[in-house]
Amino acid sequence: MSKAEAQSRAGSLAESGTARRLIILAAIAIIWEVYARWLDNALLMPSMTATFKALFEATLSGELPDRALTSLRVLTTGYVLAVGIAILFTALAMASRWGSDALGLLTSMFNPLPAIALLPVALLWFGIGVPSLLFVTVHSVLWPVALACHSGFLSVSPTLRMVGRNLGLSHSRFMLEILIPAAFPQILSGLRIGWAFAWRTLIAAELVFGVSARSGGLGWFIYTNRAQLETDNVFAGLLAVILIGLVVEELIFKTISRLTVERWGQQLS
């Protein structure tokens, strides 16, 4: 291989986003392993190899997949409920000034309120169980998604609105063909933020009270292993949370973005 070809390949590798991410992950893994071996205290910091071994064993036993599925079922239910309510709120806000002012006021009041701070209220109202987890999950998703949807529709340019009216589109076609595609970058951004908020809120809520020893999710898995001083399993649970987050981001949201926003020549704000 000539020097020019080697430089060209090196340049292509540097330009590849996937390659850069893999290099960064490899660097993190090496630093983690070296630091854990230098510290030599598995109770405080298990090595990367010990963590992956615990992750493999917990996955093979079926415990970790069961916990992950439990969390994902609750998350999916809460996320869908929150998005549905956000769509309703956005429709009301777009229909009248009263609705717009109400959504703005509610968002200003509740969006800064951490969902985890509502856990005592959720426990009082719903007790220990799935309804409490759904309550805090819906709260964490609803406001950022509603705010993003409303802002996205408001940001649609008057020119596009005039084009739709001049074409004589019906209200439903005007929404589907003009408003929603134009507002979609911000809507998708809100959905991504809502997903991230929901995932971390759910895990935090499960860490506090879970569901029960038999049916708890990933947060409960982390909590019980922490109580038993199984630090490698704690890190395995944390790694599972990270991996699920990466999979959802890469396979779902980036795919949607590639098929819609990027294809339309738009960019997420």
Radius of gyration: 23 Å
CATH superfamily of the largest domain: MetI-like
Order of helices and strands: HHHHHHHHHHH
Number of helices: 11
Q: Count structural domains.
A: 2
* Known CATH architecture of the largest domain: Orthogonal Bundle
| Strand percentage | under 5%
- Share of helical residues: over 70%
Instruction: Tell me how many strands there are.
Output: 0
Main beta sheet, described?
none
Quickly give the structural class.
Answer: mainly alpha
CATH topology of the largest domain: MetI-like fold
Shape: globular
Query: Low-confidence spans: pLDDT under 50, at least 5 residues?
Result: none
Highest CATH level, the class of the largest domain: Mainly Alpha
Question: Which features characterize this protein?
Answer:
single chain, 269 residues, mainly alpha, MetI-like fold, 11 helices, globular
